[in-house]
Amino acid sequence: MKIYTRKGDDGKTGLIGGDRVSKHHIRVESYGTVDELNSHLGLLRSQISDQPTLAALAQIQDRLFTLGSSLASAPGNRMVLPELYDSDIAFLESEIDRMTSKLPELKNFVLPGATQPGAQAHVARCVCRRAERMVAFLADNETLEPLILIYLNRLSDYLFTTARFLDHELGGTEIAWSPRSK
């Protein structure tokens, strides 16, 4: 099977269900940003060895494919696709709680950079927030599964906590943001 189809040479791409849209359509931007986030999580996984975090990230990457398939579907598509469940959000919350229980209390804003994996988790968090903004825009214009936005919102919280957790576990010192005085 060839990787190239030439079908996108006109600046359009196909959605699940057959519709063709511009490659700059907000739906394509949304699932493309989720795909970018997934790649950042893969990079993060390649930098760490903590088994619970590796397992959680693998599950999250799977759910991002689930989420992306929904975003890549044409409105009204009848194809049966994998779904997100409330338990997926509960999983993120339980992971946040697990990591938070091992962290010092957060007393101020922190700057990324205490460790490379922690900084990578912050990059992923920022990409997640961008995906969330794009999906929110899409949801303002088209009907979407509500759990998509909830999942992305919770995932950014998870990634912030993961950054702090990795910095702590790897011996990095959190870099407190101290606003300059006048």
List low-confidence stretches: none
Q: Average pLDDT across residues?
A: 93
The residue fraction in helices comes out at 55-70%
Distance between the termini: 63 Å
Number of domains: 1
CATH class: Mainly Alpha
For the secondary structure, the number of strands is 4
The general outline is elongated
Q: How does this structure look, described?
A:
With 182 residues, the chain is mostly helical. The protein has one domain: Cobalamin adenosyltransferase-like (Hypothetical Protein Ta1238, Chain: A). The chain contains 5 helices and 4 strands; from the N terminus they run E-E-H-H-H-E-H-H-E. It has a two-stranded antiparallel sheet with strand order 1-2. The protein has a two-stranded antiparallel sheet with strand order 3-4. A hairpin with a 5-residue loop joins strand 1 and strand 2 (20-22). The protein is elongated, with a radius of gyration of 18 Å. The mean pLDDT is 93.
